[in-house]
Structures are given as C-alpha cells and as structure tokens.
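Two folds, back to back.
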Amino acid sequence: MKREDKIAFVRVKLLEGWTDIDIRKAIGVPKRTYFRWKKRMQQDYVALVKKQKPGPKTRFHIDPIDSRRLQVWRKKYGWGPTKMEGHLDVHYKTHIPHNKIHRLFVKKG
C-alpha cells in the first residue's frame, strides 16, 4: 500500500469511528508516524498527501572580476579561502563562502 493510500485509509477510518490502535494495526505504521499524520490532517490534508521532494540546488557562479581578484590575492599574499572570505566581507561588502573559493582554486589549479 502506498503512502497516499495509507493516509486516505486513515482519514476514512477516522470518519467511520475506528480507534487509533485498530487503524495503526490495519495499515502497519508506527505510532509516531500515525499521530503525525493525524495531526497534519487536522491542519492541511492536501499538503500531507502531496508531499514534494526538494528541487535541484541552484548553481553558484563567482563573478569573473572577483575570481581574478581572488587568484591575485592567492598568488601575491598566499591567503587561504577563509582569510579571503573575511577580507571580501569587510572591505568589499561581498560574501563568497570559503568553500566556493576553495572550489575555485581546485578548478583553476
């Protein structure tokens, strides 16, 4: 039985007057899951049934000017990604996470 079918079953059986224990035994879901479903049914049944997976993450692109600036700092001062992240935040009011800066260095060699 699919998740949506189980949720619909719970809703119907609650309207018919079944007890919580009987419904849980009939569909075989844990107590915690059942009561979470029941609580969500009281709030918004449609959102409970149509559960969506998160979409793809957006890609992060570094501005070419910032990219060149970071490469110059790396060569000139020997700074690491964390130092550069802080320097950009303080002096240029631009935030680029240090993970992205590191990934840029790995990509550029």
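---
second:
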Amino acid sequence: MIQETNVATPSSTQIGAIGVNHVANALMIASGGRLSIFWPVADDDGIDLLVYDKVTGRALPAQVKSRTLALKKRGRSERGNVVHFELRKATFRVDRYACAILVLLSQDASVIECAWVIPMRDLPRLAASRQTKYVVRASRSLMTRDRYGDFQCKDCQTLGDRVLDLIAKLPPPSEV
C-alpha cells in the first residue's frame, strides 16, 4: 500500500526537472525521433539539454526554465498572462550557439501550456538586465504583441520546429 504524504506541491527544483523532461519528450515526439536529447552530468555551464539532430549531426545546447504560474495581475489576487523567467548571467554566454527554452507548465506540472524558444544571442537585446540575471516577462496570450511574441510556441510541434530551425542555422560539424 502506498502511503500518502502531506506534500502540497513540487519544489522549484522539481518543477525545473519536470520542465526539462517535458521539453525533452516534446522535442523527440515533435521531430518524429529525429532529435535525440542528452543531459549533462553537471549543468554548471547553464546547459540543461543538448539537442542532437541525427540527420545533420549538429547539436544545440539549451537552457530550460520552467514555471507553473503566471504573475498576479497588478493589485489583484488573480493570475494574468505574464510569465516571469530569470536566467543567471554567471552561466550565460552570448558567443555560442545556444537557446533558452522557457516553458509555462500547467499548475499541476503535467503538461506544457506555452513555451518560448529564444536564441541566446538575442536574449540581451530582449530581456531586462539586472545585476546578476536577465529577466524575461513574456505574455502567454496568443494575441500578444510583446517582444517575445515571435518566439512563442503555441504547441509542442511548434516548439520542435523552432528548435530544428535553430539547428539548421548552426555551422556544420567539423570533419574529422
């Protein structure tokens, strides 16, 4: 018999791990198995996933950030459409080909509700810069006109397509 515990919600670390797993699964499914996903043993360089294209041999590093709630509307207790993400500058490198995959999960963390795929090179131009981090506040609204609207993925297929588009722009693997 499984004993129930009184734990109400997953921790932020658990939400992060769940989000990374959802992204990995979505990319493999959306690409029809073309993409393989690898995890680093230690992610001290800000890389959560390495997305490998079996067709081209190219690999795209990705940092994944996950949330389960949008911000509250100003002066109210109800949630709005804006989702807050933070990326640490200490692990950020604009000189490499990489992307940030930002995901809003359902409140129970069981599915991806919305995602954004942003090339790391574009992040300093788009995000608010704080002392130690970049802050992204993106609207999940399908009708958004915010600076992140062009990077929004309305479903997992679009997420996979966006990542494949970024991989296609990578330099070819060097010949050995």
